[in-house]
């Protein structure tokens, strides 16, 4: 195998800590891109086995249904231990075993094998410790995926995606931009409703944030809030950690004719 692979595979790949996280917070973008004919995928880091509701088997069946609703090309699960995601785990193992055992090496292998153009990662500030740990783990793996001498099992060529987008979850972060997901919103909600064990309100059993009576309506309000910022019905926020460069600003704004800032007066 060559030491560098510059070709791309998937167009969009999203990483999530648990099955349902991607659907909740960037399912609109994935459904929209799949609807445009792009190849999309999700990699869940855990099976969500510590969830207060349902079972890993139930969640697996729900995940399969949600993947169909989003029109995904592929979905994988790394089966890392729920509640124990850590970007530094595995490095205490003998050096010969690190490429096989360390979570960062496993994520590097996924990135090099699937070669996504666009990678979606949870934002670094979140309510759930696994969400913050996933952000740190995948961010670390993205760096090492480009390092030729970073070893994985099986061996793989170095790779760098075209762009990395961070998606806020429960944390209210200022976005770098908002994606119009109006046309895909119903498909996003259909995917979320596939996780009945997690999102359906219940009188009995453990009470959870995602399963509260206002959970789905609050998610819709969130998308409406961000959509209103660009003058559309539903939007999803994304963050860039580096400065975005434009080769042709005029063409960019011709193709993205959303609401203008309030300090520009409307033509009369």
Please write out the topology.
Blueprint: E1 12-16, H1 21-35, E2 40-44, H2 56-70, E3 74-77, H3 95-101, H4 103-114, E4 118-122, H5 129-145, E5 163-167, E6 177-180, H6 185-193, H7 196-199, H8 215-228, E7 235-238, H9 249-255
Parallel strand pairs: 1-2, 1-4, 2-3, 4-5
Antiparallel strand pairs: 6-7
Strands in their spatial order, largest beta sheet:
3-2-1-4-5
Morphology? globular
Distance between the termini: 62 Å
Oligomer: single chain
- Number of helical elements: 9
Strand-pairing-aware structural class: alpha/beta
Q: Supply Rg.
A: 19 Å
> What average pLDDT do the residues reach?
87
Q: How many strands, what sense, and barrel or not for the largest sheet?
A: 5 strands, parallel
Structure summary, number of beta strands: 7
Provide the β-strand percentage band: 5-15%
List segments where confidence is low: pLDDT < 50 over at least 5 consecutive residues.
Answer: 1-5
Helix percentage range? 25-40%
What sequence of helices (H) and strands (E) makes up the elements? Answer: EHEHEHHEHEEHHHEH
């Amino acid at each position: 195998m060559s030491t560098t692979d510059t070709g791309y595979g998937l167009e969009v790949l999203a990483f999530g800590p648990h099955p349902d996280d991607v659907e909740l917070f960037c399912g609109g973008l994935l459904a929209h891109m799949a609807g445009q004919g792009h190849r999309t995928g999700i990699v869940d880091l855990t099976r969500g086995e510590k969830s207060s509701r349902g079972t890993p088997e139930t969640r697996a069946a729900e995940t399969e249904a949600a993947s169909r609703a989003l029109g995904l090309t592929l979905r994988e699960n790394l089966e890392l231990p729920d509640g124990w995601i850590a970007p530094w785990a595995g490095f205490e193992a003998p050096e010969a075993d690190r490429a096989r055992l360390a979570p960062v090496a496993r994520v590097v292998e996924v990135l090099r094998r699937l070669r996504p153009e666009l990678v979606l990662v949870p934002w670094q500030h979140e309510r759930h410790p696994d969400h913050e740990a996933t952000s740190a783990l995948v961010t670390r793996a993205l760096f090492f995926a480009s390092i030729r001498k970073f070893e994985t099992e099986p061996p793989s060529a170095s790779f760098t995606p075209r762009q990395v987008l961070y998606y806020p979850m429960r944390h209210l972060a200022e976005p770098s931009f908002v994606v119009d997901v109006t046309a895909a919103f119903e498909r996003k909600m259909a995917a979320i409703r596939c996780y009945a064990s997690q999102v359906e309100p219940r009188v009995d059993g453990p009470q959870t944030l995602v399963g509260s009576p206002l959970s789905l309506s609050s998610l819709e309000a969130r998308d409406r809030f961000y959509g209103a910022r660009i003058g559309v019905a539903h939007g999803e926020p994304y963050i860039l950690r580096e400065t975005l460069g434009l080769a042709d600003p005029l063409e960019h704004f011709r193709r993205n004719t959303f609401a203008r800032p309030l300090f520009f007066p409307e033509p009369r």
